[in-house]
């Protein structure tokens, strides 16, 4: 193998490890964050629906609030007919329960679209990784790592 080939192989390996794999890691982390947000919104929607079913919005609501690290504090909510919802960028909006459910449905639809786009991006990056690996295999004259084709038994 010539020095020029060795340099090319090294450059492709560096591109693979420092660029493609890091991009894939970032895309998958962003998708995981979106899935966490979707989970939080769906959990909030379930709580709102339970409040509406039990009609506890008119009475004083006693609940426990997680302050973090599974440390709970008892709380009394005098008016549970309205709720503050995080809408993004650190902003909260006060909604009625019905408005909050509508907002959550729209937000989850948008988050699902973003998650699907990130999944497609991850698939493209994985395809590029596979392409670079196959190119490296050919440049180094290594045997194919793909499974052998099936033989016809008839």
UniProtKB/TrEMBL annotation:
| CDD domains assigned | Prefoldin_UXT (cd23158)
A GO biological process of this protein is: negative regulation of transcription by RNA polymerase II
Give the matching Gene3D superfamilies: 1.10.287.370
Signal sequence annotation: none
Keyword Amino-acid biosynthesis (UniProt):
no
Q: Name one GO molecular function term.
A: transcription corepressor activity
Q: Which family does it belong to?
A: Belongs to the UXT family.
Q: What is this protein called?
A: Protein UXT
**Organism the protein comes from:** Patella caerulea
């Amino acid at each position: 193998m010539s020095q020029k080939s060795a340099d090319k192989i090294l450059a492709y390996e560096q591109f693979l490890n420092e660029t493609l794999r890091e991009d894939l890691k970032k895309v998958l982390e962003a998708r995981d964050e979106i899935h966490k947000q979707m989970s939080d919104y769906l959990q909030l929607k379930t709580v709102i629906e339970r409040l509406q079913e039990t009609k506890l919005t008119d009475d004083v609501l006693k609940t426990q609030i997680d302050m973090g690290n599974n440390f709970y504090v008892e709380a009394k909510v005098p008016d549970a007919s309205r709720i503050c919802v995080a809408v993004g960028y650190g902003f909260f909006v006060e909604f009625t329960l019905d408005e909050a459910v509508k907002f959550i449905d729209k937000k989850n639809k948008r988050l699902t679209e973003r998650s699907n786009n990130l999944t497609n991006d991850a698939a493209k990056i994985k395809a590029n990784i596979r392409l670079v690996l196959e190119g490296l295999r050919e440049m180094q004259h290594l045997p194919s790592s793909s499974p052998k084709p099936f033989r016809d038994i008839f």
